[in-house]
Design brief:
GO terms for molecular function: ATP binding; kinase activity. The chain has about 270 residues and is α+β, with helices and mostly antiparallel strands. The protein contains nine helices and twelve strands. The chain has two domains: about 160 residues, Ribosomal Protein S5, domain 2 (2-Layer Sandwich); about 100 residues, GHMP kinase, C-terminal domain (Alpha-Beta Plaits, 2-Layer Sandwich). A hairpin with a 2-residue loop joins strand 3 and strand 4.
C-alpha cells in the first residue's frame, strides 16, 4: 500500500501572504483532478518516474518531519511538473502521508496537510493547491490559510476536462513580482465575487478566462487557442499558473494544437491510501 494525492488546477486566485505561513495562502477557486502523484518510501534517494529528482519543497518537508535527505522516496506522477497542476503540493502530500505511516509518526490528517501547506508557502511553490488537494471537488477558498484554518465552499461537479500543455510558468517568479501580485489580487477578488453569485462550471470558465486576460497572465498564443475552441462551441480557459489550456472538449480536439495533452475527471477526494 502507498499514498495518492490528487492534482489540482486553479481557475483564479488572490495571494494572501502574512508572517505566519499557516495564515498565508490564497482565495479563489481550485479544481481537484482524478490524476495525481503516488509516493512510496524507498532505500536511498528521491526518484520521480524512475529518475533522480528533488525540489526545495520536498527537502523542507523531510526537514519538518525529522528525516534526513538520504531517505529514499519513489514518486510516480501522472501530471507534468511546473505547469499549474499542483505537482509539488500533490507530491509532498502523498510523501507526508507515506512517511507518517511507515515511520509511525502518528500525525493526524490536517496536521499533515498543514505541514505541507507550510512547506509550499515557505518555498513559494504554491498557495492554494494543498487546500484543494486536501478536500477534493471544486473548492472555493473564501478565506486564505492552511487546510485546517481556511474557510471554503465545496461544489461536487463531476465534469471531464481536457488539457493542452504548452509550457511552464514559474510560480515563485510570479509571486515575487509586486506589480503582478497587486493586479492578481484586484482581479482575483472581483472574480471570486462573480463566481459566488453564480457557481456553475460555465460561469467558472468565463470568469477564469477574464481573470487571465485582465491580469496579463494569458499570452496571445493561449488566447487564440481558447477563442478557436469557443468558436467550436466549447468552454476553455487557462490554468493558473501554467501555460496550459483547459476545456470541456474531447482531448482529441486539443491534439490539433499540440502533442502534450491529458484528460482527467473532477475528483471529490483528497489524499487516499491505494
Amino acid at each position: 500500500m502507498t499514498f495518492f494525492a490528487p492534482a489540482s488546477i486553479t481557475a483564479f486566485f488572490s495571494p494572501k501572504i502574512s508572517d505566519d505561513p499557516l495564515k498565508s495562502g490564497s482565495t479563489g477557486v481550485g479544481i481537484t483532478l482524478s490524476k495525481g502523484v503516488k509516493a512510496e518510501l524507498s532505500d536511498d534517494r528521491i526518484r520521480l518516474n524512475g529518475r533522480d529528482f528533488s525540489f526545495p519543497t520536498i527537502e523542507l518537508l523531510f526537514e519538518k518531519l525529522g528525516l534526513e535527505l538520504k531517505q529514499g522516496l519513489k514518486l510516480e506522477s501522472q501530471i507534468p511538473v511546473g505547469c499549474g497542476f499542483g505537482f509539488s503540493g500533490a507530491a509532498c502530500l502523498a510523501a507526508a502521508f507515506e512517511i507518517n505511516k511507515k515511520m509511525k509518526l502518528k500525525k493526524g490528517y490536517f496536521e499533515l496537510t498543514d505541514i505541507v501547506h507550510e512547506c509550499e508557502v515557505e518555498s513559494r511553490t504554491g498557495l492554494g493547491d494543498v487546500v484543494c488537494q486536501s478536500y477534493g471537488g471544486v473548492v472555493v477558498r473564501k478565506v486564505a490559510g492552511s487546510p485546517s484554518m481556511v474557510k471554503i465552499e465545496k461544489y461536487l461537479f463531476n465534469d471531464d476536462l481536457s488539457f493542452l500543455v504548452i509550457g511552464e510558468i514559474q510560480t515563485s517568479k510570479i509571486l515575487r513580482d509586486d506589480e503582478i501580485v497587486q493586479r492578481i489580487n484586484r482581479y482575483g477578488e472581483e472574480a471570486l465575487k462573480a463566481f459566488l453569485r453564480n457557481p456553475e462550471m460555465e460561469n467558472l470558465f468565463r470568469i477564469s478566462k477574464e481573470f487571465a486576460v485582465k491580469t496579463g497572465l494569458m499570452d496571445d498564443e493561449v488566447l487564440e487557442i481558447i477563442k478557436d475552441l469557443e468558436r467550436q462551441g466549447y468552454l476553455a480557459s487557462m490554468v493558473m499558473l501554467g501555460k496550459v489550456v483547459f476545456s470541456n472538449c474531447d482531448v482529441e480536439i486539443l491534439k490539433e494544437y499540440g502533442e502534450k495533452t491529458l484528460k482527467a475527471r473532477i475528483s471529490q477526494v483528497g489524499v487516499v491510501e491505494v
